[in-house]
Amino acid sequence: MAVLCSAKSMNLQDRISLGLQAITKKKPIVSIASENQVSRKFIQVQKDKISAGIENAFYPKESAEVLFYLPVSLEWIKQFVLSLALDCRASFRGIIKAAATLLDYRIPIGTVFNILSETIQKANIINEAQDLSKVKIAAPDELFHNNHPVLAGVDTESLYCYLLAEEEHRDGDTWAIHLWDLQKQKFNPDYLVADAGSGLRSGHRQAMPTTACHYDHFHLMQALVKARNHCKNALKSALTQHLKMLDKMGNTKLKNKASKIHAALMMAEKEESRAQYLCDMVVTLSGWLEHDILNIAGMSPIVRYELFDFILDEFEKLVSMDPYLHSAVTLLRNQKNELLAFIEVLDKKFSKLAEAHEVPLETIWHICELQRYNHEGDAYAVYSLPVQLKLAERYDALEEVIILAMNTTERTSSMVENLNSRIRPYLFLRKNIGKKYLQLLQFYLNHSRFLRSEHKERVGKSPVELLTKQPHLNWLELLGFKQFKRAN
């Protein structure tokens, strides 16, 4: 009788507490029931109620209640088509199916085409009216769709796409024409970062001879990775052959065969030693190049140039041992100035900082090199101590502006590769894309806001907003549509 009374006398909060204790399983249900003078069945009932409540919170039951009414007009249908095509990357027939499934409305495929075509002219007017003077570091590139080149270009800081055009050719004249057209929109970056595409670089020399075009480090790293992998695979093959010959030598019983196998074994040992030396050298030299010379945080320009020349000489010696390395070595030799151009950019920035903060340029470069170390580690503390004692309270402020200068110095065209990855799903849906569709896509990419990004300052903003530092309307409203808003 006492058990029944205890259960009846409990208020809501007590029942919730018992249910939570049972769910967390910190105590057995038997213990909880005994401590609170209730039955185990009573505890199980409270547990089931809380479990059901949690499930309903995350998986609410369907309701026939109308959330809001949507006025479906022809103008709204056009927005529906555009949003599916651009926000959802839907194909024309996918749009037709969605309209029939969700709206019980049939849209002919010609109408879908016409809706997109109507907006292209408005989108292109906005594209051509954009002031490109704020593009400071440009990254041009080429991608292909059904063997047709698509020329692209992006501002590395804001991700603003300043060029997106399908062409028949990708030669120097084609690139030059596009660059001349862009200059009408005040396109005049501090420098460009691009790969070794001959047409791209030829067009750049024609249209912008006074603007530097740095070589993209990413493509060099790819070449070095291929060289390393080639040498590692050659070493594995040589080791396998050596072990194979050792096995044969141990199993042979005939004297006339033993001499031949012994000669082959000596050759296998020699080849393994050669492959081991070559592999070690390539891994070491490419590591120095990547981590000591081409790293933003590093030594002064003079040391980097001397080290680069040393590494290039050593690589050239290795070509005689393995001709496969010839292409990577040729790239290093021919693109030396473009690969190291970022050092000159840093040196100019650091010279201004040295003058503004009245410190020697060598001190600025020393702080730059210190950024190779973990700020929480012992190495950073030891090597930075002399500079910190010398600069006293000025050290932190100076280090901050040096890091900013380093972070705003581009060495790769990775942002245009990022753009290419966002463009490809749209191209995949169509055999023929055409210049006009790309104009609409360029407009959309520039005025669509980022939902997520590793850089917090980009979240919730479009490339245009990041470029101009000014807000703008939703991309549909910029095209002249009135966006649907629910009544409060």
What is the element layout, followed by pairings?
Layout lengths: L1 H8 L2 H13 L4 H8 L3 H19 L15 H13 L5 H12 L5 H21 L7 E9 L2 E8 L5 E6 L5 H12 L7 E4 L3 H10 L4 E4 L1 H35 L3 H39 L7 H19 L6 H9 L1 H4 L1 H17 L3 H10 L7 H14 L3 H13 L6 H15 L5 H14 L15 H6 L6 H4 L10
Mean pLDDT: 89
CATH superfamily of the largest domain: Ribonuclease H-like superfamily/Ribonuclease H
Report the structural category: alpha/beta
Low-confidence stretches: none
Explain what the structure shows:
With 488 residues, the chain is of the alpha/beta class. It has helices at 2-9, 12-24, 29-36, 40-58, 74-86, 92-103, 109-129, 172-183, 198-207, 217-251, 255-293, 301-319, 326-334, 336-339, 341-357, 361-370, 378-391, 395-407, 414-428, 434-447, 463-468, 475-478, and strands at residues 137-145, 148-155, 161-166, 191-194, 212-215. Helix 9 (198-207) links the parallel strand 4 (191-194) and strand 5. Helix 11 packs antiparallel against helix 12 (301-319), helix 12 (301-319) runs antiparallel to helix 13 (326-334) and helix 15 (341-357) crosses helix 16. The chain starts with a helix and ends in a 10-residue tail after the last helix. 26% of the residues are buried.
Summarize, please:
With 488 residues, the protein is an alpha/beta fold. It has 22 helices and five strands. Helix 2 crosses helix 4 (40-58).
Tag the structure with descriptive keywords.
alpha/beta; 488 residues; 22 helices; 5 strands; Nucleotidyltransferase, domain 5; 65% helix
